[in-house]
Design goal:
The protein has 135 residues and is an alpha+beta fold. The protein has one domain (2-134). The protein is 30% helix and 27% strand. The strands form two sheets. The protein has a five-stranded antiparallel sheet with strand order 1-4-7-6-5. α1 (2-15) crosses α2 (23-31). It is globular, with a radius of gyration of 14 Å. Residues 1-47 have low confidence and may be disordered.
């Protein structure tokens, strides 16, 4: 319970300056997942597996109405293989082919208001997050 409160406090303070998060702060944010749609579930979900690696956005992109600035993002997945998220046929590549105002393909959803980095889910315990790390 104390760890949950510490992570919640750290995540809230880092959220306001995510671009300046240190490696320690990024690691703490990685430990805070929100695949249930509420702040409480963000802390119940627990830590995810290791990073899938990075994905480079060649230009500013809009996905699900959210701006993703040009740059490199670290990608973490939970309940879905990294191969299904990354690569030329991966979910991210599919999302980038959508128009700025297009909805995500079913069953994918963007978790608005999720704590930490932007998160995408396709069902309970299935999804991924992307965290901007450099321009």
């Amino acid at each position: 319970m104390k760890l949950t409160r510490i992570l919640m406090t750290l995540a809230m303070s880092l959220r306001s300056s995510a671009k300046k998060a240190t490696a320690i702060g990024s690691t703490a944010l990685i430990a805070v997942l929100s695949f249930g749609g509420s702040i409480d579930s963000a802390f119940a979900a627990g830590p995810q597996g290791p990073s899938c690696g990075t994905y480079k956005f060649q230009k500013d992109e809009i996905i699900a109405g959210q701006l993703f600035p040009k740059g490199t993002y670290v990608v973490n997945s939970i309940g879905i293989s990294c191969a299904k998220v990354l690569g030329t046929k991966g979910v991210i590549a599919q999302f980038l082919k959508l128009g700025d105002k297009d909805l995500l393909p079913k069953p994918w959803q963007y978790l608005y208001g999720a704590v930490g980095a932007p998160k995408f889910i396709s069902g309970p315990g299935l999804g991924f997050r992307v965290q901007w790390i450099s321009p």
